[in-house]
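Course assignment 3, question 2. Fill in each field.
Student: A.L.
Task: Predict the tertiary structure for the chain below.
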Amino acid sequence: MRAIGKRSIAFGLVNVPVKIYTATQDHDIALHQVHDKDGGRIRYQRRCEICGKVIPYEHIDRAYDAGDRRVVLDEEDLEALPEASRDEIEVVEFVPSEQVDPITFERSYYLEPEKGAVKAYVLLRKTLLRTERTAIVQFALRNKTHLGALRVYEDALVLQSLLWGDELREAKFPVLDSKARISAKEQELADALVKSLESDFRPADYRDEYQEQLRELIEAKLERGDAVDVEDVIDAPARPEGGEVIDLMEALKRSVDRKRSAPKRKAPAKSTKRAKSS
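Answer field:
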């Protein structure tokens, strides 16, 4: 992995210099747009709607439209705004880990200690584990100020950017104001269905079948000279027509029966080596 930046975790008088790595990667196949008649690449240009010229990036400012008026902001305006330190990941408080709801998570970053900071890094990691706390931090990355959660993942510290409080919408749906009556039998069957599907979550057990089939389709077209019928490559199961609504009780019964009759999934062999977080 390649570090995307360096910062220092600052809490109290303690500073822990770290390197920042993007913790996730996108496995989607990149597709671009082309003209269907001649295959020419479709590209987008920054063209001014007044003079009609293509404008280089260094001559582009930001603007905000307030109804019929426009406010233009140049680089000097933006640089004058206060922001979190570009050098620190500042710990502002330690909160119970269960209070940080996953809905607020955005992107994740691994933090690796610099040489000479390993002891302080390990101490912070162990303290978070022992106290079952998550550090709420503020930091700047890629020209934005972020709220973040600093927590333990495997043997490493992971920094997760969080949504700000006013970025979360309220889950308010009028239809839920009326109480739905659930019978004892329906609840029993629902509990049985959950019980039949209980397992430990292992992300490696799941595959993105769409991306796998898309790759197969592309490879087939390359091998056969771009003259392949999609149905020859992707043998998709037939989907039932319409959207028939069936009885909740019947659906639960079918789900439980289907799970009971299905062969049990074998758990993968446990590795004796622990994954490194590098």
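Instructor remarks: The first strand starts at residue 5 and ends at 11. Strands lie at 5-11, 14-22, 62-66, 69-73, 88-96, 105-113, 133-141, 144-153, 156-162.
Grade: pending
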